Structures are given as structure tokens and as C-alpha cells.
Amino acid sequence: MMSKDFNDESAALAATVMEYMTAFMRGDVPAVLATYAEDGVLMAPIGPAVEGKKQLAEVYPGLFAAVDFNLVPKVKEVLQTSADWGFVRTATEGTQTNKANGDTVRTRYLELFLLRKSATGAWLIARYSTTQNGPEA
Amino acid sequence: MMSKDFNDESAALAATVMEYMTAFMRGDVPAVLATYAEDGVLMAPIGPAVEGKKQLAEVYPGLFAAVDFNLVPKVKEVLQTSADWGFVRTATEGTQTNKANGDTVRTRYLELFLLRKSATGAWLIARYSTTQNGPEA
Question: For residue A45, is the peptide bond before it cis, meaning its omega torsion is within 30 degrees of 0?
């Protein structure tokens, strides 16, 4: 086991992820974007990788216009791997509603967030992958 | 920009991911498992997170028995973030065939691999998330 040569900031990593999650559930685009680094990348079931804050700013409004998410995230793991990198795993469960037709389905997601410490000391989402299990049969 | 205080082993990170991918496409369970760390975790559309080599050894045979994958991965990004951690992003496209009924669909995946350097110097998959786009309409 190696000794750590950096301060443990794992609580700050988890806090950024929970900020993202709560902003996501209320469909708050500016608050969602504030949790991403400028070069942040989203990998999700909705399509190709969304690369950089400009693309992210184009994708989230359409997502929130189409779907109402009502999911509860649980933090499964937080690990800071260096002075300025770390990751968080979450599992998320609940319902989502298609706003066009009102259809609601139960669904689950698994999330893997890579976070990087910014020059100002904030932990921001650098790479984020979410994979969907369900809708349940 | 910080100077790196570690040797760049990004080629080795990418090599492990390509070993995983080629083993996965030929349905080779032992070769797939050899690319994972003991505590490796898989997050995929197939169900809950698969945590640790014992669970992984139970899940992959069933997956390969059910589905024939014929996908081509492209490496999108490789970044070593410390002496013993790094990540690789890939995008994967092709077809998969349900072995029970022969149905073949075109599909795409996005993969995010977190790799950790083992005590023996091998880069192994520590956390891996794959998200599916498609089947295409």
C-alpha cells in the first residue's frame, strides 16, 4: 500500500457529483454546466459523446425539454487517485417521463464520474459515463 | 500546466484496452478476465454493477452465450493521470446478434475505462463503464 502524497478531498468530489445530480433532477441547465470542466465529456445513451462545454450547453436543454427525470442517486464509491484527479460511482433509480406523451417508466442508471481539480481548487466533472438498465419489463 | 512527475505509459494503457476489446469480440472469457484488476468493476446496460473478478467471471460467460458481438472499437482518448492511474475512452460500432433467435442489430457503444498499474507493472481495468446508443431505428 502506497502512502498518499496528497490531501484527501474525497468529500469535495462527492459534493460536486451530488450538485450535478440535484441540478439534473430539477432540469437546471446553468447549474448542471457549472459542475463540468471546460473540456468535460458526457457519454450517455442519447447519442455520440458530447465533448466540451459548448456542446454540453446545446445538449442538456433538449434533454430536459424532452424528459422529466425523477431519480434518486446513491453514492457507491469515491476515490481520489492523485492531487488533482479522482472518481465517483453512483447508482440511480426511479422514474422518467416522456414529456411529449406523458409516458412514465421505471429505470435505473449506473454512473461513473471522473473529476479533476481546477486551478481555483474546485472539483469539476472531466469525463462522465452513464449507462441505462431498463426500462424494467 | 503542471510538469509530469511520472513516466508516460499511455501506450500501455491503450494496449490493455485493445486486449480487452479483441478478447471480448472473440468471446474469450479468460483473456477478458486477464485484463481486469481483482477489484475491477463493470457498469453496463445488462444490469447492476458487476464488482470484482469473481462476479465478472460469472457474468461474461452468460453474456457471450447469449450474444455474438461484431463491433469495431476506436480509441478516442488516452490520458495517464498519475504514476498508477489513467483512463481510455473508446467508441465502438458494428452489429450484435442474439444467439437464441439469430436477430442481428446495428449498434454503437461508448466506453470509459479507468486503469490502474498493478504491483507487477501491468495496467489493468479497475473501473469500466459502457453505454449503448441504439439499436439504430
Answer: no
